[in-house]
Structures are given as C-alpha cells and as structure tokens.
Amino acid sequence: TLPGPRPVERAVAEHLATPDAPVHYVENTLLTGLFGLLLWPAIFEPLPGAFFHPFHSAPADLYREDFAERRRGIIDACLARLDDGSYRQAMRDTFAAKQGVAAQFIHWPALGPALLDTALHCLPAAHLRAVFTRLLADLKHNRAGFPDLIQFFPEADASARYRLIEVKGPGDRLQDNQRRWLDHFARHEIPVEVCHVRWQPAP
User: Fold this and answer.
1) What is the DSSP letter of 196?
2) Please, are residues 145 and 137 in contact by the beta-carbon 8 Å criterion?
3) Are residues 98 and 66 in the same domain?
4) Is the pLDDT score of 57 beyond 80?
5) Are 35 and 107 contained in the same domain?
6) Domain of 10?
7) Are residues 8 and 53 both part of a single domain?
8) What is the pLDDT of residue 202?
9) Phi, psi values for residue 169, rounded to 5°
C-alpha cells in the first residue's frame, strides 16, 4: 500500500530501492538487450537473403521458424560463451563497438554501461542461458512479457544478487505472455516476484 496515485512502477521502485540495492525500470529492454549483445554475430550474420540494404536493424527472416536453425552453429558458439565465462567481455566488446547502431533487440538509451556492468555482475550465466533459449524458441512472441523492474544486490552471495519484479497496480492483471515468463522463471529458479499495489486512502 503506497501513497498515490502516480506511475505505479516508479512508486514501487522508489519504495524498494536502497543505496546498496538499486531498482531499475527495465521491462522489455534489459534481458532482450543482453540477448542482442551476446547474439549479435548470429543476428547480423550476412546469410543470403537476410539483408537487402545497410540500414536493416534485423535480418528479414528474424521471425521465421527456421531463423535459429539457419544459424545454429554461430548461435551455439555465442551461447557457449556463457559456459566458458567469456560472455561478459563479449557483451562489453559488442556494446563498445556497436553502441547506437539500430538493432532490433537493443534499446540503447535504456542500456547504459553502468547498468550493463551491474547486470553482468549480478545475473548468473545459467539464468541468461535459460532466458536466451526461450527467446530463441519464438522470437516474435517471447520478446515481450518481461517483468517491469529489476533490483540488484551487488554485495550479496553470487546466487542471490538480483530479483525481477512485475508490478500490478489497482485493477491490473497478469497477461498471458507474462504468466508464461513467470512459469519459465519458476522452472529455472530465476528470482521473480509479483508486486500488487493499492493506493493509500485519502485522509
């Protein structure tokens, strides 16, 4: 129960944030942005028919069922970086080299270097793999439905350095794509909570 009414995500973020546990409004930008950074070589692989001019922000076959299969080798190589630990530097290198280039999964204004570094410190590779694998299974439909907020606990144990938070204001309900992501998070032990907000009654 919070004072309001006001933008509900901002209200929850301000209520939960502390100097040691910042909260960021990320919704469909952070996890998809990390996906775009790691999978950049696969997304922009110049396969025949994928690009018609130099201003494409994604290949023409991005949402076709065979998108991943056509790029299986390079996708597997990108995901393998999550296993050998090289993914952090790979993402930072792509961020530095490609920042500002139009890319389907990356909203550059929402993904600054400080947020990137904190996310790479706090999000386990296994959780990123679980998210990226589901994204690849259906890029068109699975790229939405992510929780509104993320709270980081950078000084905590490596297994508990963040939580995702879906915020629902008065009268708002979970959408189907949100429920599917919540189910996926639960099956992969990805920390997520749903915060239901109601406004304090007027005095």
Assistant:
1) E
2) no
3) yes
4) yes
5) yes
6) 1-28+144-203
7) no
8) 81
9) -80, 180
In a domain, 121, yes or no: no
92, 111, 130: which is the final residue of a domain? Answer: 111
Q: Which amino acid is at 104?
A: Q
Does residue 129 lie within any of the structural domains? no
pTM of the model: 0.95
Tokens of 27: 């919704």
Q: Domain check: are 169 and 193 in the same one?
A: yes
Q: Is the peptide bond prior to 5 cis by the omega test (within 30 degrees of 0)?
A: yes
- Mean pLDDT calculated for residue range 3-16: 96
DSSP one-letter string for 149-182 = EEEE-TTS-TTSSEEEEEEE-TT----HHHHHHH
**Residue the block writes with tokens 């901002």:** 10
Q: Is 68 inside any structural domain?
A: yes
Phi, psi (5° rounding) for residue 68? Answer: -70, -40
Q: In this structure, which amino acid lies at residue 142?
A: N
What one-character DSSP code corresponds to residue 44?
A: T
Looking at the predicted structure, is the pLDDT value of residue 55 above 90? no
- pLDDT tens digit string along 134-186? 999 999 999 999 999 999 999 999 889 999 999 999 999 999 999 999 999 99
CA distance 41 to 94: 9
CA torsion angle for 194, 199, 201, 203 (degrees, to 10)? 130
**162-168 and 192-196 strand pairing:** parallel
Rg (alpha carbons) of the chain, rounded to whole number: 18
Collapse the DSSP code of 192 into the 3-class scheme (helix H, G, I; strand E, B; otherwise coil) and give the result: strand
Non-local CB neighbours of 46 within 8 Å, separated by 6+ positions: none
